[in-house]
Amino acid sequence: MRSMANSGDAGVYDMKSSLRRTGFTLIEILVVVIIIAALAGMVVPRLWPVSDEAKAKIAQGDIANISVAIKLYRLRSDRFPSTDEGLKALYPEYLEKKARDPWKRDYQYRYPGTHSPGGFDVWSLGADPNNAADDVTSWAE
């Protein structure tokens, strides 16, 4: 063990310096917390599935946009697209890309509509394509 007499003030100075550097500063901790929060904010939404209720709201907005595109088609062509032509008649002039619902299925189209006499029907099959109760439609139920 070294004696303090031989080392002079250097031993005391080193001891003070080592005591100061034993912990993290508040700024360092805050920076780490902010980085973790930013990473979590980017990763969590991709890992957390979107609820079917939110997907139904997205489908309602899509159907409203498709309905506007169909009406624009009618204004220029003096007719609605036939059921056989379907929504394909709207690409690329009235819709930029093929419309698919949030469940990754094509939207359905029928003219003349059975729910909208004199008009058309547009709908999504919803989360369960075999259950009509969860369909998202262009007509009021």
What's the order of the H and E elements?
HHHHEEE
Any guess at the CATH architecture of the largest domain? 2-Layer Sandwich
Any idea of the CATH class of the largest domain? Alpha Beta
Structural class assignment: mainly alpha
CATH domain topology of the largest domain = Glycoprotein, Type 4 Pilin
Overview of this protein structure:
This protein is mainly alpha-helical and 141 residues long. The chain folds into two domains: 10-47, no CATH class; 52-137, Glycoprotein, Type 4 Pilin (2-Layer Sandwich), CATH 3.30.700.10. Helix content is 45%, strand content 6%. It has four helices and three strands. The chain has helices spanning 4-7, 10-20, 26-47, 52-77, and strands spanning 108-110, 121-124, 136-137. It has a three-stranded antiparallel sheet with strand order 1-2-3, covered by helices on one side. The longest helix is centred in the middle third of the chain and has 26 residues, at 52-77. The radius of gyration is 32 Å and the shape is elongated. The mean pLDDT is 85.
Summarize the model shown.
By secondary structure, the chain is mainly alpha-helical. The protein has helices at 4-7, 10-20, 26-47, 52-77; strands spanning 108-110, 121-124, 136-137. The protein folds into two domains: 10-47, no CATH class; 52-137, 2-Layer Sandwich (Glycoprotein, Type 4 Pilin), CATH 3.30.700.
